[in-house]
Amino acid sequence: MEQILQFVLSGLSQGGIYALVAIGYYMMWAATKAANFTHGDIFMLGAVSTVILAGLGIPLPLAMPLAILLSAAAGALIERVAVRPFNQGPSSVGWMLTTIAIGLMMESAFTATYGPLGKPLYSPLAQSPIRISGTGIYPQELLIPVVAIAIMLALEIFYQRTIVGRAMLAVAANRIAAGLMGINVNRISMIAYAMAAGIGALAGILLAPVAEASPAMGALIGLKAFVIAIVAGMSSARGVVFVALAYGVLEKMIEGFISTGARNAIGFGVMILLLLIFPNGIFGKREVVKV
Amino acid sequence: MKPHHQFWLILILGFAGLYLFRELGPTNYAIGVLTRCMILAIVAVGLNLLIGQAGLVSLGQAALYGIGAYVAAWLTLRADVPFLPAVVSGVVAAGLMGAALAYPSVRVRGVYLAVITIAFGLVFQNVLVEWVPVTGGTLGLTGIPRGEVFGVRLTRQIYFWVAAGSLAASFNIVYALTYSRYGRAMRATAQSENAASALGIDVARTRMFAFVVSASLAGLAGALYTFLNLFVNYETFTFFQSVSFLLMVIFGGIGTLLGPLVGAGILTYVPELFQDFREWQVFFYGAMLAAVMFLMPRGIVGTISKLAVWLTARPQTRDAKPWPSPAALPVTMVGGHVEGTVVAEIKRFTIRFGGLTAVNEASMSIKAGTVHGLIGPNGAGKSSLLNLMSGFYQPTSGTMQFLGAPTAGIASSHLARRGLARTFQNTELFGDMTVLENVLVGLHCQYKATLAETILRLPRFFTEERAMVGEATQLLELVGLTDYADELARNLPFGHQRRLEIARALALRPKLLLLDEPAAGLTHGEIEQLKELVQTLTAQGIAVVLVEHHVDMVMSLSHEVTVLDYGQVIASGEPAAVQYDPKVIEAYFGTGDLLVPASENERPPVVAGSA
Amino acid sequence: MAHSPTKVTRLGSKLLAGAIVVTIGATSAVAQVAQPCIGASLELAGPLAHTGLQVRLGAETAIDEINAAGGVLGQKLKFIAYDDQGEPSRAVDNGRRIGEKDNCVAMVGGFRSPNALALREPIDEMGLPWVGVISAGTRVIEWEKGVNKWMFRVSMKDRWVGPFLVDEAKARSKSGKIGLMFEATGWGQGAVPDVEAAAVAKGLPLVGKETFNIGDQDMSAQLIRMRDAGADTLIMYVVDREANQILRSMERIGYKPTIVSAWGISSQLGKTAGALTDGILVAGTFAWNGDLTPRAKKVYEAMAAKFNLQSPNDILLPSGAANAYDGIYIIAEAIKLAGAFDRDKVREAFYKVKYEGLTAKFDPAFEKAAPGAIAERHDAIKPSQYRLLAFHENVLKAVEQTPFKR
Q: Lower CB density within 10 Å: C or N end of chain A?
């Protein structure tokens, strides 16, 4: 029982990180039917640049929003430079490769300058754990899924209540029609990428105090979150967050009861199966074949 | 330059270059690097078939490469299997895995498929690490002996030529497939799945075939790699390596013959130079990739050859010939159908999409040598009925007999093979293929030459290919498009696209031809020519179902007309009778006492506006 | 028309021609004099880049010293470091480049055992003396098949580290229940049999064996099992990043066993995990913190000047840097004894090198098998020369200079 509680709590925390990163993929996908494969590195950028800024003597409450802004700018730039020009035809190879290229450059530039090793980020919430009988968790970790759900709810309000949000929904539903309606589709896409990057950076900043901020921290998480977003169906923030939290818990359960080593094999195996059962993702809308 | 000239030039220059290289007395190291380069090129050549022809992106190619490597290594180390069988086993294992991996492509497309291949690659790596007794875990398998063939020990000097020969063979296979009906079928499925299956191509099998070939070549490369490096380790077969393979193809130029070879060369040798950048080398690797994507999105070979075409292009005048020219009707199309016999019998077809009943208990009987008109207001279910007949939809209930056999559960491609051809409301041509190739895709099912004959380019392949090109040319002549044979289909004017689509459908040598709004967008003159063509076809005993908003055309051509409204047949019979059926008038104009002019020469009453 | 047969014959003739060229080429290539360079395949880029730097710290400082003293046989030594990003196939390529293109007299190996293992056949084929200075995998030196002629090591060996750690754990454990945590890498997995065997030999079979992946953030699941098995002392094969996560997970579940670790843990952990590291014991060959001998002090100062180090704590792998330093000297001494830049002669001279290094007194560095004995000793540092280091006040020192000495 105690063990299961530990796995659920740790899993939700891990899943919260996946959720925050995967939400970004969903937003980018909705706007452009493409994604930024550098997103894992944007996640890293948030954490690492906070550590760097804090190292320069900037107080954390200022360093964190600065890092988020910086990442959002990077996201917008990537949309403009690496995604938009390569997202014209039906093929996804172009933007996949350009964004992978930029990711490689980002990661290696930080490895060369910041150093390959992780550095800690201070947070008052990661100093001593909350203990529940034999299990325990840092408040910082509990915060992560809470933030993920809060962001999800905020996004839903944003999509329904704001002009930019509605425009984003319109672009998601039909890019061409939205353009004909006078929506500046390119600007909306850029905003979506910037917001996605900001949320991704936030995830990195939230994780850094319990893990470490290192240049390589984003690679696998970025890939996993993309798989999660695809399996969820890229159709709603709610679906993405649900699948991400569930996947986090699933991973911990696999580690706890089956095998630590085989976690990824089993986890990804489950994902492949889910995609075979739901070819458009679990919450994705089935597209009727139009002949 | 013609593809087979390119092929031979690359092969001859390639071997000459390798021979020269060896004559220069390179160090063992240089020989080793070039050997590795050739092995990687095998993967790239195979991947080029998958991406460039079948349009499928795999980001798990490194795992297939790894399967070949591990199977060969394991067999050699643990079971003392000699070199050749070990390599063959690696190829087969990777090929089988490729087939399994292709299965999702039947249902999942684009990025979704890419994600499955990514996930597969990660699972594979995890298995390599965890399945220690077989894979050696993270330490991998070491101490693999050098291969031996017929008593000759494959030292690195000899192995160089083994790799070169394997690359040449792989290159030959991919070349031979690309420029044959197999490659055409792959390109067709990539460009329009619907049109491909309407032409009798089994899309799933074609995709699987492309996957299996590229996986087998990856497996071959993996097995060869094992006997080059004499160890295997999971870290060679990473996601990053999969990306590198993709890069080789993109760098060189997707779909070009030379591209993957150039790409593999660059990606092998450039990192060697980048060693001087030390901790910045990955950065420059990324920068190089980005630069190529920005400056040469078609890849190096693709961009240069495009430039060459642009520089040498001479303006050409092309004229559409008068059509139809019945004299050009291929002999395979002539006769053989008994007029008046029932070709297709539809009984109470119904299909529901959720709550919507698109077709409701529709029955029809279609006879050879006749035109059966199918009309109705927008949304009446005409296209749905056509899709049901051609097997694109499966009915919720009801049956159809085609040439005396039931069609329940039979895929559209199989119906097409039996002689059921169709066109599409929005023309679905293979835009990036030439006009001639479009028709050749239609002839896909008529080919008899086997895969082996095709790959080895045995005589039957050539005679058959010539015959098919002849037949396709005749069909183009029939619709007056011979001058456009080598033009890309998407460059044709709209009216010509319609003609091409009909010629392509006729390549199936159909017994039943379904035309979905063939006159939409045509000029008055073109419509007259189209009518003439339809009459030519029915004269050969072909049954035609004509869905058309252009009612006067339907009325003048049809022997029988069926009218649909809200999915139901509201009238059926001879054109004259149907035309004045009150239910038909009501369906088009709503109730009311609107009187309609009754002269036969005037536009008939049921004009719902041509599309 | 059927071009396949013609191609086959052409290929055959090419093959034949190739074979002829090869045999001629091969005979003329024999008996070359090697260049006065020492190559290395290291992790210079990527997530393990700091490990390559540690080798460079020691090796380049040693090379500078040797060259300042006039070089070897009148020639200056060159150190050529290639990057392998920790990947075995790249390490093999680099090895070939060093042995065949640069034609160096010897090669130095880096951090990862899989790289060293992958190099076994190429090194043997090229006849290139290889000296490992970090990777401790047993099978790098002790081949399960064939005879290891060319691979030497100035570092620790897992088969000897295992008993060393078990001894220490046994002495520190109150309950006598010892567990093992190891990373799912070649190094971690490779050590398991050694540690298990040593534990059984000491009569204290392991009560738990847990693994984790590189990059994992939470090891609570494994530690809960370990705690429930009653282990009060854990032997660890872990590197800094995951060690930090393990310490945090221990804090989460309120579990505080004694930790006796192999040397994947470096000074870096003191920076990331802070006070949680206090009392962690690490096996090693050298410590740069604390009091140093005059020679070590001189070496450190040279190193600090060349690589801009702020404190000895910046030498993340203290033992690795020291091993690299000693490894280069042993190679240089062997060349002097051999009297030529000739790989065969250098290899022979290895068994005669006598040299007092930072990590140990080598007398001789390596030993040939005595007639009838089991094997040659290609590991320069003997288990009796291993040292125990401990974290105290976030700094890794020799255990004798901390309150944690036994």
A: N
